[in-house]
Specification:
By secondary structure, this protein is α+β, with helices and mostly antiparallel strands. The protein has five helices and seven strands; from the N terminus they run βααββαββαβαβ.
Length: about 160
Amino acid sequence: MERRLAAILAADVAGYSRLMGVDEEGTLSLLKGHRKALVDPKIEEHRGRLVKTTGDGMLVEFASVVDAVRCAVEVQRGMSERNATASVDKRIEFRIGINLGDIISDDDDIYGDGVNIAARLESIAEPGGIYISRQAHDHLLEKLSFSCGRSWDFET
């Protein structure tokens, strides 16, 4: 086991159970398409490590909170564009939480409060939004080329 400081991004699809209830195969196909075309390349571009997926969710580790937030912003903007022509009831919209905290790494998985807080933040984020912890926010001050509060909504 190893302890380290990391930026953790937790994401899931808002309304996934409803989407699957309406069209399992179509929803799974859409999600896989978004991951392949947008999400996974953005994670790689920003030097993230996909730790695991959980059906509609994912856990990603970054060495830098700036990289984690840039990745999240680009994913949410890209999803907004990809959803522009989709009917409201078929949109895949991610909720993202980001925390900067201590983690325990064991057998390629990560554990600890750093992960738990990111998951809690993801659960309160709005569909299409990003919610970050105070620690992540404080670390971002004057490091990004766009202004931010602690939550963003990309439905514009």
